[in-house]
Amino acid sequence: MDAKPGGASSLACGVQTAKATDDPTRYQITLTVTLDHNTAASAKSHYSGVIEVVGFFRVAKGYGDDPERLVNISGSSLLYGAAREMVCNLTARGPWPMLTLPTMNFTPQDGPKKELGTPLSSVQEKGMSPGRRTTKPASGKD
To answer: Fewer CB near the terminus (10 Å): N or C of the chain?
Structure first.
């Protein structure tokens, strides 16, 4: 992950699914998350980089509905959550505020362009994460 002075980042997310040839219940999901600071919308970005996360999943043999859809949605969501934590962890130790990736919807969207990985909000940089509090040190007095 590269760090640059500035503000917001542009986010792209790609998902690839592969099914095992010897076992139809096994799948591999590859999730690629790209933070780009070279686009016009994110000219003042702090961070840029690419994270690729790979997961292996198995669907129960009795699952009758569309198992590939289940793996695409659930597997991608699990991997994105891990990538999101990695980005928070890496950027929290840098000279600029921590970067928090937006939540994503991995349900295929209806319409002319069916995509997995639709952001539900924009990429955010925060000085503190929600729920984190600062407290005054104990004074030692009763």
So the answer is: C
